[in-house]
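Morning!

This is the sequence you dropped in the shared folder:
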Amino acid sequence: MRLSYSYSQILKVAFPLMLGTFIQSIVMITDAAFLSRYSTLSFDASGNAGLIYVTLFMGLTGLGDASQIIMARRIGQGQPKAVNAVFQSAMLVIFCFAIVFFLMIQTSVGDMLMGYSKNKALAQEQIDFLSVRSYGFFMGVLMLSLNSFFMATGKTWVIMVSTAIFAFSNIILDYLLIFGFWKVPPMGVEGAALASVISEGITATVLLFLLYKSKEKLMYGIFSKFQITIRSLQRLFKVGMPLVIQGFFALATWTVFFTWIEQMSTYDLTVSQNIRAIYFLAFVPIFGFGATTKTYVAQYMDIKDRTVIPKIVRRIQFLIMIFLLLIFHGALLYPAQMIAIINPDPTYIEDSAYILRMVFGSILFFGLSTPYFQTINGSGNTRVTLAIEIICMVLYISYAYLTIKVWNWNIAAVWTVEYLYFISLGLFSILYLYIFNWRKKEY
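The structure's back. Tokens below.
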């Protein structure tokens, strides 16, 4: 049964996802705040190493997104018994990728970091973080598979509950493991990584419990029988591989960006890490409504009324703008106070606040662009979004290279690259949707 596309129903689907993202943002802010007070080196290291981890994890996320799109499409087509094959296939493929990424970090990333990092102490801290954090890939197998299933069915409150449990456990463990407690010595950056892995394990267990207690488990026959098929794997790879590549390179671009900033100076890196930590508050409505867009588009792809999806997109854009102004207005009105929460050192606050206020407009462009981009993903045309992402990434990395390596601009001017990326993403998505017949996609 398709979801209603009234404002209240869209918000009902998106709100738990937003709240989940908000809780994750609070976790990231708390993590950054603890580490900045522990040591600036650990703060910078966790930021850069975290980008490397998330870059690889986005590969797993791409497969999860693909399974969400396909499961939602099957539900929209009235084929509930086909969902189990997609779900099980996703778990298998995500697990295989998790093994590859884990071994990659454990065997080769350390030498790479030592090779290109200007600050060797910073590089070693990053290695320490990643050696522990990489175990989180295996927690992601269950988390991503189950999240995708619940999002495809529109049961997003489950994501909210599991994320709240993750946040609660992570914040407590963060504090205890970073600074030490009782007979446990301070672990610094390794403590932050370990806290995340343990919290993910707790969250995966909770999600599995909620699945077994849900009526959807019976409705869609989840785990009712072994149902991994060649056909379901082929469909998952067809839709998912462009998303894997897209997610990987999108974050890889940001990782390169921060690496180049580290080579400018540790001061510029700390300022930029302050911005990055606050940035994720803006992603609360953008990611929440982005995932909602994919579910709605996938469910309504086969409807004859061609005006429905554009109407859904406009409504989602409106809601994104409302929530962006509600959640992220501090970046424009009181940026210094927001930065001080992350890093109270007055050395970095003025420049960090200036950049945060400057990039506020780019976030608005991102909010308007996301529903168009995710409409293409939800329609199953993931190769198109990959092509758009690649074009935007080339523009982004070229601009960053010129401003950092060639023209030697200051850190504030370098951050104007965000406008180029988000505007390009929106323009190319709109052009595709208006020029090409994207509704014919079968998967």
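Headline: DSSP finds 18 helices and no strands in the chain.

More detail when I'm at my desk.
O.
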